[in-house]
Design goal:
Layout: H1 10-18, H2 23-42, H3 46-63, H4 72-97
Helix pairs in contact: 1-2, 2-3, 2-4, 3-4
C-alpha cells in the first residue's frame, strides 16, 4: 500500500494557487528540500531555518496570484534566500545591540 505521488509541472502547481487549491502542499513536495537547502546554507540555527521555511510558504501564498512565475523552483529559492538573508541581518543587528 504505497502512497501514490502525483508529480505536477510548474504551471500546474502555479495554477493551484490561482484556483485556491493546495498549491503549497505541491510546492513543498516538489521544492521543499531545495528551499530548506538554500535556507540552511545561510542560517546555521535550525529554529531560524524552520521559521524562514514557514514564512516562505506564507509569502508564496500571498505572491501567487497575482504573480505567475515561469520557473517555480527559482522563484521559491529566491524568496527562501531573501528571507534567510533578512533573518541573518536581523540576528546580526540583535547581537550587535545585546549587552
Amino acid at each position: 500500500n504505497e502512497k501514490e505521488v502525483t508529480v505536477l509541472n510548474d504551471d500546474e502547481i502555479v495554477q493551484l494557487y490561482f484556483d485556491e487549491a493546495d498549491g503549497i502542499a505541491q510546492s513543498q513536495q516538489q521544492y521543499g528540500k531545495l528551499c530548506r537547502s538554500v535556507i540552511r546554507r545561510i542560517l546555521p540555527d535550525e529554529r531560524d531555518a524552520e521559521e524562514c521555511l514557514s514564512d516562505l510558504w506564507v509569502r508564496v501564498w500571498n505572491s501567487i496570484p497575482p504573480e505567475r512565475p515561469r520557473a517555480l523552483g527559482a522563484f521559491l529559492a529566491r524568496i527562501a534566500r531573501n528571507l534567510a538573508l533578512d533573518r541573518l541581518s536581523y540576528n546580526a543587528a540583535e547581537s550587535a545591540t545585546a549587552p
